[in-house]
Specification:
heterodimer; A: mainly beta; seven-stranded mixed sheet; four-stranded antiparallel sheet; B: mainly beta; six-stranded mixed sheet
Chain lengths: ~110, ~110
């Protein structure tokens, strides 16, 4: 299947700093990418949907100024957690959708905010 | 509204025994249903999907799932469990290309 790569896989940062997570589709063009957040022992929560070249669509309750999403190309989407706080600590997973509608997930990025 | 329910937080089976992980759904229109598996600190891996056609869908690693429209269920099954099947399993429904996941079921396969 198609491969989606996330980087970094693990990041620790100080409170108040910003962290950028990259999501790349390595062998396909993802016109749509999705960002999920997963809390311990819980399911994935869809945060936002991003389409290449346009603004992301955020789910209800997700702060768009807090979680900046950029989808600059068909193979790259980035999530920036701005002014991170300990409650932003979580596992963030991206996924890319192929032109046939199949979804492939990245390995996830674990963010720990001290 | 789209929703998926996985009624069991955890399923315990002995190696070699059949396993079932339950999933029920609520969607408007025809459902697109998926099963994913997640290993610790990893992303999700696709197992199988139902879009249309045969109600019994076969997927990766010997898993299969049966779509039951009358019961609005899409239970995941495997005839003979392996210890390596131990992981977290998510059922998902898709609507307008958005995935909505169930709460997950932890499968424990004991030797």
């Amino acid at each position: 299947g198609a491969v989606v790569s996330q980087h970094p896989s693990w990041v620790i940062c100080k409170s108040g700093t910003s962290v950028k997570i990259e999501c790349r589709s390595l062998d396909f063009q993802a016109t749509t990418m999705f960002w999920y957040r997963q809390f311990p022992k819980q399911s994935l929560m869809l945060m936002a949907t991003s389409n290449e070249g346009s603004k992301a669509t955020y789910e209800q309750g997700v702060e768009k100024d807090k979680f900046l999403i950029n989808h600059a190309s068909l193979t790259l989407s980035t999530l920036t957690v701005t002014s991170a706080h300990p409650e932003d600590s979580s596992f963030y997973i991206c996924s890319g959708s192929t032109n046939t509608g199949e979804l492939f997930f990245g390995e996830g990025s674990r963010l720990t905010v001290l | 509204a789209q929703s998926v329910a996985q009624p069991e937080d955890q399923v315990n089976v002995a190696e070699g025994n059949p396993l079932t992980v339950k999933c029920t759904y609520s969607v408007s229109g025809n459902p697109y249903l998926f099963w994913y598996v997640q290993y610790p600190n990893r992303g999700l891996q696709f197992l199988l999907k139902y879009i249309t056609g045969d109600n019994l869908v076969k997927g990766s690693y010997g898993f299969e799932a049966e779509f039951n429209k009358s019961q609005t269920s899409f239970h995941l099954k495997k005839p003979s469990a392996l210890v390596s099947d131990s992981a977290l399993y998510f059922c998902a429904v898709v609507n307008f290309n958005k995935f909505y996941f169930g709460s997950g079921t932890k499968l424990n396969v004991k030797p």
